[in-house]
Amino acid sequence: MKRIYLDHAATSPLHPEVAEKMLPIMLEHFGNPSSIHSFGRDARRILDESRRNLALKIGATSSEIIFTSGGTEADNLAIIGTALAHSNKGNHIITTEIEHHAVLRACEYLESIGYDVTYLPVNDQGIISVDDVKKHLTDQTILVTIMYGNNEVGAIQPIKEISKLLESHQAFFHTDAVQAFGIEPINVKELGVDLLSVSAHKINGPKGVGFLYAKSGIKLKPTLYGGEQELKRRAGTENVPGIYGFSLAAELSLKNLEQKREVFLSYKKEMISVFDEYQLEYEVNGLLNGLPHVFNVYFPKTHIESLLVNLDLAGIAASSGSACTAGSVDPSHVLVSMFGKESDRITSSIRFSFGYGTKMEEINYAAHEIAKIVKRTAKSK
């Protein structure tokens, strides 16, 4: 049986070149980068070069990069660290209903200790209104955190427009770019953001490493306490092999970016062509011109759990925004925000996502299998 991985938005396979080049770092350059002896200096050199390389990829300076254990920690440091460091200026935060749970849970924590959080709705394409942001800004607003591209439906938010709006306001602007980095060209200066989160495992790098871009001069209250690593902003001995692998993965991921985007868009069009060939009843959730690697499709008269199980039995890995547990489905908060709690889309939508190693012949084969499964499961309802 063929096994086809169409869940790259959840995590991506480690690039073979990254794996190969990380091994010598683990075996030969094991020193602590804070040590002053030659072993430590070797590790420090690798760390500094990797930091410099990643900073260049987003138009930042090396000192603006804070290495973390991944996107979740980067989001937490950005949101909680900013809120606690600037509580003397206000206690209001603006975010959206469709953020990753790393953002939503961080905001919920701040609510539990007295902060006020506004959760903005989105339209049926998954996009917020800049006017909504403007309407909810107050003199107490200290942070706006809005994701660059959504992990479930691929909706891209008007980040530049929001940053323009905030130019004359005290609020700092954070964007979770975990799903967009390596897919969309990102320059923090052009975007106008103050804080930006990225994770390695979404771009064929190792798990357990990410970074937070924090614009020079921004004060953050650390969320970890210990040593004085990362300019005293994030304690803990740096994961040198992981950071090196992250840097290399970014280098590989950002090559031929436009060509990669066109290939992923062609995969969406191929799946649509096959679905039309089978005369399936379906609708795309979100816009086709959102994040090119994310493709969320609503199949009426089907059910998430049944679809996912049957797809897995056919060797096709996909996902939904729902947390499936024994006998129950926790609806996707993204689709709820887009279509309402009563919409059938919440229980009948599947996300397919593409990445390194995905081939057109796999897409064609998978689309035919998906169409057969949808026809079969829809009839049995």
TrEMBL record:
EC number: 2.8.1.7
Enzyme class: transferase
Cited Pfam families: Aminotran_5
Reactions catalysed, as given in the entry: (sulfur carrier)-H + L-cysteine = (sulfur carrier)-SH + L-alanine
Organism from which the protein derives: Metabacillus niabensis
Gene3D superfamilies per UniProt: 1.10.260.50, Aspartate Aminotransferase, domain 1, Type I PLP-dependent aspartate aminotransferase-like (Major domain)
Record's keyword terms, sorted: Iron, Iron-sulfur, Metal-binding, Pyridoxal phosphate, Transferase
Coiled-coil region(s): none
The keyword Metal-binding is annotated on this UniProt entry: yes
Family the UniProt entry places it in: Belongs to the class-V pyridoxal-phosphate-dependent aminotransferase family. NifS/IscS subfamily.
PANTHER family listed in its UniProt record: CYSTEINE DESULFURASE, CYSTEINE DESULFURYLASE FAMILY MEMBER
Molecular function per GO: cysteine desulfurase activity
Residue ranges of every copy of the Aminotransferase class V domain listed in the record: 4-364
Cofactor: pyridoxal 5'-phosphate
Identification of the protein by name: cysteine desulfurase
